[in-house]
Amino acid sequence: MDAKSISRRGLLKRASVAAVGASGIARAIEEKAQRPNVVLIMTDDQGWGDVRSHGNDKIDTPVMDRLAASGARFDRFFVCPLCAPTRASLLTGRYHLRTGTHGVTGGKEIMRAEEVTVAEVLKRAGYVTGCFGKWHNGAYWPHHPNGQGFDEFYGFCAGHWNNYFDTTLDHNGKEVRSSGYITDVLTDAAIAFIRRHRDRPFFAYVPYNAPHSPFQVPDRYWDKYKTRGLDEKTASVYAMCENIDGNLGRILEALDELKLAERTMVIFLTDNGPNGRRFNGEMAGAKGSNQEGGTRVPCFVRWPGHVRAGTVIRQIAAHIDLLPTIAAIAGVARPKTLPLDGVSLLPLLTATANDWPDRMLFEKGAVRTQRWRLQMPRTGRKARPNAKPRTKLYDMIADPGQKRDVAAKHADVAEKLAKAYRAWYADVSKGIQGMPPPLPVGHEKAPDVTLLAPECKMTGKVRFKQGRGWANDWITNWTSTDDRVAWDLDVVHGGRYEVTLMYTCPAGDVGSRVRVDAGGKHVEGTVRKAHDPKPIPSPDRVQRKEVYEKVWAPLNLGTIELARGKTRLTVRALTKPGRQVLDLKAVRLRRAE
Q1: What is the pLDDT of residue 407?
Q2: Are residues 353 and 459 both part of a single domain?
Q3: Is residue 116's pLDDT more than 60?
Q4: Same domain, 343 and 472
Q5: In whole angstroms, what is the distance from residue 226 CA to residue 236 CA?
Q6: The domain boundary residue, chosen from 313, 344, 363
Q7: Average pLDDT over residues 197-204
């Protein structure tokens, strides 16, 4: 990019001109009785370098390599440094801050209910829609996948899952037991969905949770990689990736068997940089970093008869472009969504873009163009003490590893990009105002709600077991009657609700009396039964940082009257005869009428 970088409005205008060559395809699609199917597959924490065809000879990914060779490979495709923000942008075609998603836990992962997802766009166009895997954009209706356009959901809504073998998953809002390794199980469900709907257009979104920790994988994959001279974490990741590769192959084989390959676009990408330091093309940064290595990921697209095999797309592109691209191939020329940030990549995929304009892609703290990467000064807790804030500029063509800051040499470019970033951030950050929202209770589609510990507000000495309140964490160190744990609620349907605490408590601490208050009403109960189980055994290959799962006991306190509207539900102890009150996993509310 030179000093005449264009604005987003200019990009959209010029991109629409570039798309004219592909408009004939879009019109033809719209006129056909059978619109093309879409299978969108995304892995969790698999980096750009975790693919053999990207130069990594320590990993075997033959299906991913064939997928890239049989269609288009994006050379510079960008997402967010963390999983929930990437998912929000991918689903909506908008920068994640606009959607309200601005973190990965504590409710910050929740996407605004009014956001229009790609599933909703396609559903309006006559598609049947399914999501199979990790959601991570809200668990409460209408934030649940079934409330965001997906006819079928099978997976989990949290940021990570505790066990990958024979676990409990969510199927359309109901808990069900699965049998087998989770990536295999999710693939089974996706293929079954494809088979059931082979005679109508379908959208299958398959966001696998591997190779995110905990690092669990079947023996035959682990046994292979532990002999390759790798550390145990890297061996685990590569083994999990090869398992994904085989499951990707199963999906492609099902499309072939059903004679659907010719009319199905398959998109494969990952959600952020690698979850650890390993081969990543000598890029700076990894997961959690807004540098190149934390945000550049694989993206392969196969659409036989439309996308030429062996296509390599050099122009930068991003997660925000997938909704408009999918809408275009589905023949939805003007999807009814909130204002989009992305553009359709159909002209690039079909080699009809004669004059594709340069553009700016934004991430919190960074700007990327075709040539430049600007890193804004760190702020908040990430800032180094006593360090002078400094904007850094990198020439990504001459210096792809970000080793030489050229901000002083190209001050005009640095200032232009910094100015654009400040305007962008001032605009998109308006989306996080009022977020996270109070948790909906009593919705007609989900009358029973489980208030999870990571979404609470705490006062006193109580804390999370793991420390950061990641998914599946719980509340511990409840040593005082002055401690409080609370959730902000939006009661959609007023009435009486049965209140149950999910707890553990050793025999020496039994006897505490606890109370739940909400809207001037309360309910009380006493912890009379000891329940102090050991964690569920987990076949981790590497010791995890997250908490292990336990079996939690229910403590039913009775019913409480909740008036419609916003309120705060607070849990506190009235007495504490032992060392601490209890450990609290969740509060369950079940509508009693």
Answers
A1: 98
A2: no
A3: yes
A4: no
A5: 8
A6: 363
A7: 97
Q: How far apart are CA 298 and CA 74, in angstroms?
A: 7
469 in a domain, yes or no?
Answer: yes
433: burial class by Cβ within 10 Å (0-12, 13-18, 19+)?
exposed
Quote the DSSP letter at residue 387. Answer: P
Same domain, 141 and 270: yes
DSSP helix/strand/coil, 356: coil
Let me know whether 305 and 451 are in one domain. no
Q: Which candidate in 54, 136, 306, 531 is catalytic?
A: 136
pLDDT at residue 61, as a whole number: 98
User: Which contiguous run of DSSP H or E holds residue 98?
Assistant: helix 96-99
Strands 72-74 and 311-313: parallel
Please give the pLDDT value at position 1: 37
Mean residue pLDDT of the chain comes to 93
pLDDT digits (tens, 9 = 90+) for 364-389: 999 999 999 999 998 755 556 666 77
Output the domain CATH number for residue 199: 3.40.720.10
pLDDT digits (tens, 9 = 90+) for 247-271: 999 999 999 999 999 999 999 999 9
Of 311, 336, 363, the residue at which a domain comes to its end is 363
Do 483 and 461 contact (CB within 8 A), yes or no?
yes
- What secondary structure letter does DSSP report for 200? S
Enclosing domain of residue 252: 8-363
Q: Tell whether 209 and 333 lie within a shared domain.
A: yes
Shared domain for 93 and 188, answered yes or no, is yes
Convert 11-32 to b/e letters by CB count within 10 Å (16 or more is b).
bbebbeebbeebeebbeebeee
DSSP 468: S
Residue 27 confidence (pLDDT): 54
- 311 and 206 part of one domain: yes
Is residue 405 included in any domain, yes or no?
A: no
Q: Give domain status of residue 415, yes or no.
A: no
Provide the 3-class DSSP secondary structure of residue 558.
Answer: strand
Q: What is the pLDDT of residue 34?
A: 79
* Residue 394 pLDDT exceeds 50: yes
Is residue 376 one of the residues assigned to a domain? no
pLDDT of amino acid 192: 98
CATH of the domain at 581: 2.60.120.260
In this predicted structure, the answer to whether residue 7 has a pLDDT above a threshold of 50 is: no
Q: Specify whether 359 is located in the same domain as 443.
A: no
Asked if residue 21 has pLDDT above 70, the reply is no
Q: Is 136 a catalytic residue?
A: yes
User: What strands, in cross-sheet order, belong to the sheet with 392-395?
Assistant: 361-363, 366-368, 372-375, 392-395
* 441-445-448-449 Cα dihedral, nearest 10 degrees: -50
- For position 9, what pLDDT does the model report? 43
| 539 has a pLDDT exceeding 60 | yes
Plot region of 370 (φ>0 → left; ψ -120 to 50 → alpha; else → beta): alpha
Per DSSP, the chain holds a count of helices (H) and strands (E) of 13, 29
Residues 516, 489: Cα–Cα separation, whole Å:
13
Task: Look at the chain and report how many structural domains it folds into.
Answer: 2
Is the link from the previous residue into 142 a cis peptide, with omega within 30 of 0? Answer: yes
Query: Could you say which of 83, 131, 241, 456 is catalytic?
Result: 83
Q: How far apart are CA 270 and CA 282, in angstroms?
A: 18
